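name: query_chain
kind: protein
chains: 1
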Amino acid sequence: MSQYSIKKHGYGYRGIYNFISEKNGCVKHTSVEIGDYQGDAIACFIRKDGMVGMLDHCYGSCSGCDAYQSCDADYDQENEELIELANKYEGRVRWDTAENTLKRCEEIWLEGQAGYHLDKQGFEKWYRITAPSFINNTK
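structure:
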C-alpha cells in the first residue's frame, strides 16, 4: 500500500494530490486554489476505470488556518502528522461517475452563488468551465 512521502510525491497539497492519484490508480488529476492568502482548494482525479474523484478543502497562509502548515514539517521531511493528513484527505475524496460529478459541479456552483465564497469568479470558472472540461476530455 502506498504511503505519502514528500520525497516521492512532492511538497504541499500538490504532493498530497500526487499521493491520492497514485494510491487510487488515477490516469490524471488537476487542482486549483481559489483565493489569495486563504480560500478554497479543489482537486479533481480521474481513475483508470473512469470514476471521477473530487476533493475540496480550505487553505490558508499560516499554521493556524492551513492544515498542511500546521503539521510543522521541514521542507524535505515528512512526519506522522503529514502522513495522517494525506490519508485523511485521500479518505475525503468523493468518487462517482463522470455524469454525476458533472451534475455535482453545477450544484456546487449554484450553492456558491448564495454567498459562501469570496472569489465568485474563480469559483465559477472552476466548477462551470475547468472541471467539466477536464472530466469531459477524459471520457
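note: The chain has five helices and four strands.
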